[in-house]
Structure formats: structure tokens, C-alpha cells
Amino acid sequence: MSPQDAPKKMGRPRREPGETSTRERILRVALDLFTIRGFGKTTFREIAEELGLTESAIYRHFANKDEVLETILVQFRDQVYQPLAGLRDGAVEGGVTAGVLTGLPRLLLTDPQYLQVSKLLLGELHHNERIRSFVKEAFDTRANAFLEELVQESFGSSSPSSSVSRTLAILINSFRFGWVYSKFVLTNSTVDDLPLLERELSDISSFLDEAIFKQIPR
């Protein structure tokens, strides 16, 4: 029997490298629709129609629309914190503020999904309690605690008091949050603005590291 005549193995076909799974396609299309139409105005049926699937096909992967949103948010949070976690493992070149801020423009502008989720979060904060709670936990409470630890570690054995570290963490995080809102929601910056935005944050972070951190006795 020739190889062509050999019986084919049954089961799920192998996915080729770079091919997107149905679950990933659902998440991408849902994110597109959530960003354009808003989470509340997007239905499972619309997601299915956009994908060329039935609603039942989507229910095989997600129980409801809230679960789709939850998956998108958790993936985004984990991706954002992954590079930041590396700051704990080595010296922060240029200072704490530089380490936290200078990578923001490239992170948001070179991956469309980062920018989409950022716009979704900031655009829905005022009327979506689920998103408001997520942003509060991930990018306020958790981010402040993360930055407070980073500030303490940057000073080594001569670290400032916990109240000073907490104040500096809130200052940096508040600026970061406001800057993202200004540049990517109010101004709608694009990849063409990347060099300008990187220079702007480099100048600001250098100023903050020089004006704040070097004034605290070690």
C-alpha cells in the first residue's frame, strides 16, 4: 500500500505555525467589537457573525460575554507586568522612573492589541463596573504596591521610610496613568508619534529621577 493510500488518522487537524486557533480568533474579534461598539452594545451573535461561526461554536470556548472580557483583561494584565517584573532582577538604568516609563510608548504602539485594550479600559471606566474594578486592582492598588517595592529596592540598605516610598510610588503611577490617557485616548497617538513620545518620556523620567530620587538622603 502506498503512502497515499494509507488510512488517515482521525482527530483534530494539526495547526500550522502561525495559524490562529478559534479561541484566539474569538478573543481578537471580540476585542475589536468591544473597542468599536463598546462592551455593553456587543452581542455574542455579532461576534459569531463577524467570525463566520454559529453562536453555539463560541459557547464551546466561552460560557458568556463576561468570560470573554475576563480572559482579555487577564491576558493584558499578565503581558503588561511581565516586562516590568524584570526590573526587580537588575539595576534600573537611568533610575526607577526611567525604568517604569520609557518603555510605555513602544509597548503600546508596536502591538495593536495593547493599544486596543488600553483604549477599551479607559473608554469604559465610567460606566462598566467590571472594568473599573479591574483597573483599580491591576493598575492602581497592585501597581502602587509594585512601585513601592521597586523604590525601596532601588535604595538598598538606605531605603527611605515606607511613607516616602509609598508617596513616590503613587506619584509615578498617577503620572503614568494620566500620560497614557492623554496620549492614547484624548490625543489618539499612532506609531508615527513613537520617536516624539519616547523623547518626551525620556526627558520627563530623567527630570523626575534627578529631582526626586537624588534629593532623598541614602
Count of helix runs: 10
- Along the chain, the helix and strand elements come as HHHHHHHHHH
Helical/strand content category: mainly alpha
General form: elongated
Number of domains: 2
The averaged pLDDT comes out at 81
Question: How much helicity do the residues have?
Answer: 55-70%
At CATH level 3, the topology of the largest domain is: Tetracycline Repressor, domain 2
Cα end-to-end separation? 80 Å
The CATH C-level class name of the largest domain: Mainly Alpha
CATH architecture of the largest domain: Orthogonal Bundle
Please compute the radius of gyration using only Cα atoms.
Answer: 22 Å
Q: What are the low-pLDDT stretches, counting only 5+ consecutive residues below 50? A: 6-19
Number of strand elements = 0
Largest sheet: none
Strand content: under 5%
Attribute tags:
mainly alpha, Arc Repressor Mutant, subunit A, 67% helix, elongated, Tetracycline Repressor, domain 2, 0% strand, 218 residues
Task: Compose a concise summary of this entry.
67% of the residues lie in helices and 0% in strands. The protein is mainly α.
Could you describe the 3D structure shown?
The protein has 218 residues and is an all-alpha fold. The protein has two domains: 45 residues, Homeodomain-like (Arc Repressor Mutant, subunit A); 147 residues, Orthogonal Bundle (Tetracycline Repressor, domain 2). The chain has ten helices and no strands. The longest helix has 27 residues. About 6% of the residues have low confidence.
